[in-house]
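From the thread on structure requests for the teaching lab: each student submitted one protein with a one-line request. Submission from student K.M.:

"Model Large ribosomal subunit protein uL4 from Maribacter aurantiacus, tokens only."
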Amino acid sequence: MKVAVLDIKGKDTGRKAELSDSVFGIEPNEHAVYLDVKQFLAHQRQGTHKAKERGEIAGSTRKIKKQKGTGTARAGSIKSPVFRGGGRIFGPRPKDYSQKLNKNLKRLARKSALSIKSKENAIIVVEDFDFDTPKTKDFVNVLKSLGLENKKSLIVLGDSNKGVYLSSRNFKGSDVVTNSGLSTYKILNASSVVLLEGSLEGIESNLNNK
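Reply posted by the TA:
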């Protein structure tokens, strides 16, 4: 599948980029996509939630009232969960939410996501570019030229590009990753995926590697 290569002003350069059918033209596997997105979202959870139980509350251990004759339920500690300031019953504890997926399934999920975007004509190939000085304004101008200023976009770089990355940090509507940092969630979360020419070889190599 061939796609026109644009420059940073959104104009056709007259060149075509070849997108591999084995990455951008497969039949999407929805279950693989579901599992990979589920894992990505699970990994965003810190799992540091914690509430103190009665054994962790600071307070007196004396018996607060006599056992019988009060007309109320017996009580042995001010730290009891039934009292205000006492410990919490079955409170949250730290937990690891990470999930394990094998590499082949993750590759299949990412190829499926890219194929979905390809079928939606939501993939744009742009010639490699850089900024001499990181400026958010310059980055926004590139998005304007590509018609993506008011849309969620994912910019995929071939290698680490400090100028483009720093220029994009203050712009909330776009995410910039290298070809090795692609994730199924980020691909699907973007309305358009912008691939720099230098990223194509790395994407196909990473996703077809066995």
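TA comment: The chain has two domains: 2-45+100-208, 52-96. The radius of gyration is 27 Å.
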